[in-house]
């Protein structure tokens, strides 16, 4: 599957245990522009798109989630996977070859995928595959990032906001040489899989999706945010 990729979002998490607060990010504004109706669409079509987006914005504003915050921080495009409850999202989670890698860390990442599956009402399940060429999501182990960061998620989406591919990079060390514990790897993976599912950052330090969170597990607000994301159509929420 090689759809035309119009957007690449880079979201970064830091090793929460160290309480860092930097966040890297970029987005391609082409993705936003591609959501604009064409000039041929007609005014009634524009009006209906406008009404739909207004209702989506209202639903987000009235919810106790951080989708609104994440949209305001990003490119105003909701991104998510299609319903993958019967056709699982394929994940290549390889054995690492970098120093500091252990089966414990791999187990932690696998557990983080399973944790997201257990949230419920998110129509995405994962299937681990042996062949990276068959996988839509790749996990890559590295020894460390050049900056203080231990995880990164890169996702790609099509012009309609449907996610089509993901890459999770997990480090075995912080850039100062400290090793990443199993618990820290679990938390980092949980956060990055949140991005992989389409979530942005939370504005509340008590949530797992806060950039430098100190919590170990998903919070009710993390779960509500993900569920609402998967109850809404993807795409821009801006007025055309
Ligand atoms: Zn993040």
Layout of helices and strands:
Layout: E1 7-13, E2 25-26, H1 29-33, H2 43-62, H3 67-73, E3 77-78, E4 84-92, H4 103-117, E5 124-128, E6 137-142, E7 151-157, E8 163-171, H5 182-196, H6 220-229, E9 235-236
Parallel strand pairs: 4-5, 4-6, 6-8
Antiparallel strand pairs: 1-2, 1-7, 3-9, 7-8
Helix pairs in contact: 4-5
The protein binds zinc ion (ZN).
The site of zinc ion has 7 residues, from β1 and α5.
Key structural traits:
two-stranded antiparallel ribbon; 6 helices; globular; binds zinc ion; seven-stranded mixed beta sheet; Collagenase (Catalytic Domain); 240 residues; single chain
Q: Work out the radius of gyration.
A: 18 Å
How much of the sequence lies in strands comes to 15-25%
**Tally of DSSP helical segments:** 6
CATH topology: Collagenase (Catalytic Domain)
Decide which structural class fits the backbone: alpha/beta
The string of secondary-structure elements, in order, is EEHHHEEHEEEEHHE
> In which order are the strands of the major sheet placed?
2-1-7-8-6-4-5
**Total tally of structural domains:** 1
Q: Can you tell me the CATH architecture?
A: 3-Layer(aba) Sandwich
Distance between the termini: 30 Å
Q: What's the mean pLDDT score?
A: 85
Bound molecules: zinc ion
**CATH class category:** Alpha Beta
Portion of residues in helices?
A: 25-40%
Unreliable spans: 1-39
Overall 3D form: globular
CATH superfamily: Collagenase (Catalytic Domain)
Number of strands: 9
> For the report, how would you describe the main beta sheet?
7 strands, mixed
């Amino acid at each position: 599957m090689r759809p035309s990729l119009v957007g690449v979002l880079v979201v970064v998490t830091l090793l929460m245990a160290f309480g860092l607060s930097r966040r890297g990010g970029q987005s391609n504004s082409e993705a936003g522009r591609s959501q604009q109706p064409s000039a041929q669409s007609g005014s009634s079509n524009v009006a209906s798109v406008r009404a739909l987006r207004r209702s989506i914005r209202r639903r987000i504003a009235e919810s106790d989630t951080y989708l609104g915050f994440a949209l305001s921080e990003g490119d105003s495009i909701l991104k998510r996977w299609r319903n993958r409850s019967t056709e699982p999202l394929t994940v290549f989670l390889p054995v690492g070859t970098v120093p500091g890698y252990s089966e414990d860390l791999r187990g932690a990442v696998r557990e983080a995928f399973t944790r997201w599956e257990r949230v419920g009402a998110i129509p995405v399940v994962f299937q681990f595959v042996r062949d990276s060429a068959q996988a839509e999501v790749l996990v890559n182990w590295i020894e460390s990032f050049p900056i203080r960061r231990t995880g990164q998620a890169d996702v790609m989406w099509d012009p309609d906001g449907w996610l089509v591919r993901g890459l999770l990079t997990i480090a075995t060390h912080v850039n100062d040489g400290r090793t990443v514990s199993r618990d820290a790897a679990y938390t980092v993976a949980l956060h990055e899989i949140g991005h992989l599912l389409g979530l942005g950052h939370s504005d509340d330090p008590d949530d797992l999706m806060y950039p430098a969170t100190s919590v170990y597990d998903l919070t009710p607000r993390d779960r509500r945010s993900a569920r609402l994301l998967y109850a809404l159509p993807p795409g821009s929420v801006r007025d055309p």
